[in-house]
Design brief:
This protein has 483 residues and is α/β, with parallel strands linked by helices. The chain is 24% helix and 20% strand. It has helices at residues 30-33, 55-59, 97-106, 122-132, 154-162, 184-191, 208-212, 238-245, 315-325, 377-381, 397-401, 416-425, 447-455, 467-480, and strands at residues 12-13, 23-27, 42-47, 107-116, 135-143, 168-173, 199-203, 224-231, 266-272, 285-286, 292-302, 311-313, 328-330, 342-343, 349-350, 362-364, 437-441, 459-464. The strands form five sheets. Strands 1-2-18-17-3-4-8-5-12 form a nine-stranded mixed β-sheet. A hairpin with a 5-residue loop joins strand 14 and strand 15 (349-350). Helix 3 crosses helix 4 and helix 12 (416-425) crosses helix 13 (447-455).
Length: 483
Amino acid sequence: MRLKRSTERTLSLFPEPENTDRYVLHVGNVLEVLPTLPENRFDGVLCDPPYHLTQNSRRGSVQAGDSGKTPFGRHGVCTDRGFMGQTWDGGDIAFRPETWRAVLRVMKPGSYLLAFGGSRTFHRLAVALEDAGFVLVDTLMWLYGTGFPKSLDVSKAIDKHLGVARPVVGKRKHPTLKNTDLIEEAANAAHGKNFWRREWDVTLPGHADSARWNGYGTALKPAYEPILLCRKPGEKTYAENALKWGCGALNIDGARIPVSESEGERPLREVTCDPDKNGMVYAGRRNAGGGFDGGSRAIGSTSEGRWPANAILDEEAAAMLNTQAGPRKSGAMPKGTLRRARQGNAFGRFPGVATHKDIAASVGGASRFFYVSKVSTKERQAGVTSSEPRYAHGTTLRRIENSEKVGNDHPTLKPIDLTRYLANLILPPSRGDDSRRLLVPFSGAGSEMIGALQAGWDTVLGIEQSEHYAEIARKRLIYWIGG
């Protein structure tokens, strides 16, 4: 079913592709678009709202117009620009409960919402979601190893404050020029009109005070982004909600983490809560009264993937974890092997039990989580820029330095693999009528929409206030989905 524009006055809508009814992109403010949509319409929400990394959040200064009542150090949200000076990251729209009440209204009871947040500001987003009526179910962590620390060198700052010159002891080249000067033209092309420094002086402290603070900074390397998993309150039970509204549960089997070839098959376990089962056989736990609370036993092996976790790694973070932990080996156990008793952290002592069939040996890393790399240049620009060479042979360096920035310039683009995985996690089972609808407010350059459509959502509706980013999203949707 194609979603139609509900007002001609306040919204502009990109022409819908002729050969697909699957996606629509509204251009406008979410607080103006959402009231035009029907109540209880969508089976889920996936979004990357502004993080509001405003200057006030860094200084801890008071909010404008509150007569100094804001506690010192509280995140200020009233500047007009945020991350990298972007106007769309200023303000406080993602921290306002009324924003999320408008989202809640159009969601079906029991449906899930996934929202990216910033490591310094996601607490404000979580409070706004709860104040709007959502239930905070979990917080996923997307861990990556490619973040860059934005830290102030306190030693250099002290020398600057004291007016002391620092002795120069060497030079350091820009990372893109470390191998050879022959790639300078390519580096200039990548930076466009933006000024960039090709080398820096390597200096030493120029004063006793700055020497004492040498090696001190003000920030850690960013290595994660939180993703809030919330649920709209629904019917009295999950079963009733699923039957009435067709949503309200996580797609566990569809989001399982595949077992690697090196791991082979993993143990298949039978779980029981039957109080009459033998606790020795099922390695169960006993309650305070001495009764059997249930347990599990190995009944073979399976190639079924692992249960999805609330930690998501990129390839570099996964490699770092595997390197630190080393390979995790599991030896072969012939049928009848007695497994030793162990003391559980939370559920008491688990008695030793014998395996009932042969279990093969396996080996794997500690990073047994879904992992995805950050956005590559190829993925970022696919469908947006021409496949022709950007600069013709013989182009001068000055022309490259003065060229306009082209292509997909969204600074917080999310990987399609990641958005597809998240969209799949909250995808309800098919109802046979192509009616599973996902809402993507703050749709930006379209990664969440693309991932959702690839995951199998029947219809996706995006809302983006920037015509510039919406145009990029339209091109990307045509490239990745069709139209």
